[in-house]
TrEMBL record:
This is UDP-N-acetylglucosamine 4-epimerase. It holds the Pfam family Epimerase. InterPro entries: Epimerase_deHydtase, Lipid_A_modif_metabolic_enz, NAD(P)-bd_dom_sf. The lineage of its organism: Bacteria, Bacillati, Bacillota, Bacilli, Bacillales. Coiled coil: none annotated. Residues 5-214 form the NAD-dependent epimerase/dehydratase domain. It comes from Staphylococcus piscifermentans. Gene3D superfamilies: NAD(P)-binding Rossmann-like Domain.
């Protein structure tokens, strides 16, 4: 048995492969880019066609599907390749009699704030607010189709708002961490009274590991973070963890936050795969700060 991982070099993939190394597990990272095929390499090149995947997958393998964009897009055509990739993975895993497939889904499949904290069943009669969430929900339904009609064991993990070390994008939390590291002031826009749930990628990686170790008939599980926070609370905790003395600047405090509250109920994952978040937000930030200190490259404010 081995783990075969798509998206293994992304934020979550990096944390998960580190966990596999700690457990001394055999794994392969799938990549469209050519790999150096030597004893030290864990990568293998694929075009992600079903035929190519069937040459890589082996009976009894655990497939961990993390590949896919995290940012919202405005055209449904932007997600077509992700849907096709999911189908190719499911077809190849069924053909090769893989043990399990674990798929990264998202809190973005939810929409109705009246039902907070969201439970897995709350998507049955609701429509996601974004095409990104709709894409994730469609992949979940495709997974259910392959579970019912092909007997494939698939678990979809709905991750909350992920954060971790060294992401090269300008999402608020990553931008704030870089500013704090550089001892620059953080600017919080709007009223900042809406709370969202944040999930440390190391906790998310542990949830994947737990899902791989437990026999479960649960198709979908919420993977919640340890805390729900406003943007102002995020900024305050980042400054504290990074020892940033620059003051937090507030702008447009009379303007409503442009996003809705979002947080999930994690009881099903705790009961099914014994998952609960282990890292408080501040503890995770301290780890990230120490990782940033070890970087050789100069850290920019923005990418």
């Amino acid at each position: 048995m081995a783990f075969r991982i798509t998206g293994g070099t992304g934020l979550l993939g990096r944390y998960f492969t580190e966990l596999l190394e700690e457990h001394h597990e055999d794994y392969t990272i799938l990549s469209r880019q050519a790999a150096h095929l030597d004893q030290q390499s864990k990568r293998i090149q694929t075009d992600y066609s079903q035929a190519s995947l069937e040459m890589i997958f082996q009976e009894g393998d655990i497939i961990v599907h993390l590949a896919g964009g995290r940012g919202p897009k405005k055209e449904i055509s932007a997600y077509t390749s992700e849907l096709q990739l999911a189908q190719n993975i499911f077809d190849a895993a069924a053909a090769k009699k893989c043990k399990k497939v674990i798929v990264a889904s998202s809190i973005s499949v939810y929409s109705e704030t009246e039902t907070l904290p969201w439970q897995e069943r709350d998507t049955v009669e609701t429509i996601p607010k974004s095409l990104y969430g709709l894409n994730k929900r469609y992949i979940e339904m495709l997974a259910e189709y392959y579970t019912v009609h092909f007997g494939l064991d698939i678990t979809c993990l709905r991750f909350s708002h992920l954060f971790g070390a060294n992401e090269q994008n300008n999402y608020m939390i990553n931008y704030f961490m870089r500013l704090a590291y550089l001892n620059q002031p953080l600017t919080v826009m709007g009223a900042s009274n809406v709370k969202r749930e944040f999930l440390y990628a190391k906790d998310a990686a542990q949830a994947i590991w737990q899902a791989s170790q437990y026999e479960t008939k649960a198709l979908i599980l919420n993977v919640k973070g340890s805390e729900t926070l406003t943007n102002l609370e995020v900024a305050e905790q980042i400054n504290r963890a990074f020892a940033n003395q620059a003051p937090i600047e507030r702008k447009d405090e009379d303007v409503k936050d442009f996003f809705a509250p979002s947080y999930m109920d994690g009881a099903r994952a705790e009961a099914t795969i014994a998952y609960a978040p282990q890292y408080a937000f501040g503890e995770a930030l301290q780890e990230i700060y120490h990782e940033m200190e070890l970087l050789d490259d100069e850290i920019p404010e923005k990418y």
